[in-house]
Design a protein that fits this description.
Layout (H helix, E strand, L loop, with lengths): L22 E8 L5 E2 L5 E7 L2 E7 L7 E6 L4 E8 L6 E6 L10 E5 L8 E3 L5
Antiparallel strand pairs: 1-2, 1-3, 1-9, 3-4, 4-7, 5-6, 5-8, 8-9
């Protein structure tokens, strides 16, 4: 039997991928309770190399649809198309011409404008 295991861990508020130019951790928040992160197995990783990105997320409902978004301080922009989970997961790649050019942008895996199902960038909203 052969298999690969990929593990990722980050301490809350640690200077991890959310503070680099290669990616961000996305998690769901208790929006009614000061944006405290929920530890319930629902999270995502958004990574990029140049204009190529990869979005992976786990613990999602297969009946929901999501879009990768970024907010540059004045405008919310969409990256790629609509993503629908399969088996509770999303794993999608694509190219976005100006992706990553705004280092102060906030990144989200947005569910139809519903904050309760949206995954927010981990270290920027808490």
């Amino acid at each position: 039997m052969k298999f690969n295991i990929e593990l990722y861990a980050e301490q809350l508020d640690a200077p991890g991928p959310a503070h680099t130019t290669r990616g961000v951790v996305l998690d769901n928040k208790d929006v009614a309770n000061d944006w405290v992160p929920l530890v319930d197995g629902t999270f995502g990783l958004l990574t990029w190399e140049g204009s190529n990105y990869r979005i992976r997320a786990w613990g999602l409902s297969d009946t929901d649809s999501f879009k990768v978004k970024y907010y540059d301080g004045s405008t919310e922009n969409t990256i790629g198309g609509v993503l629908t989970p399969s088996g509770g997961k999303i794993d999608s790649t694509g190219t976005y011409a100006s992706f990553g050019t705004n280092s102060s942008a906030k990144y989200w895996l947005r569910y139809e404008w519903d904050n309760a199902k949206t995954l927010f960038e981990s270290n920027l909203v808490n």
